[in-house]
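Field reference: sequence -> structure
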Amino acid sequence: MDKVRSEILETGNPKIKSARILIEAAPSAIFAIIANPKRHQDFDGSSTITANISGPDELLLGSKFGMKMRLGITYWIRNTVVEYKKDELIAWRHLGHWRWRYELTDLGNGSTQVTESFDGTYAPAIAQVWLNLRKAYPWTQLAVAKTLVRLKSIAEAESR
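Structure field:
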């Protein structure tokens, strides 16, 4: 059996790292997973989320949610949903202002194309310095790709 992989996309912008995958599930089923911050640890391809510490069961525009993270050190981060269109688009950011964005395209045959992007274009200069020193862009490209593979596995298993 072939290993499931997501397709890494060339965005033309070195501060935006994206990948996409085809998921055999309805957009609403996939979106319900992504829009529930209590599920983020389940599909986090970076393996940095260690716990959901606050937030609603379903994210909407303006929702805030907190995560316990571990990336060398343990820390807590608070995110805010800044883009939202139910079953189609959701994005959030934290203090550093970079965004994690999920775009869902209904292919009309029971499957959905999902694109995830890490978008560093909103980050202020000091945050850009940190992202570059930590080599976050290449690392995040791989994490985005892994996240989509995990999301596919969960969504397809739950949609059977």
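Note: The helical segments are 27-34, 40-43, 125-133, 136-159.
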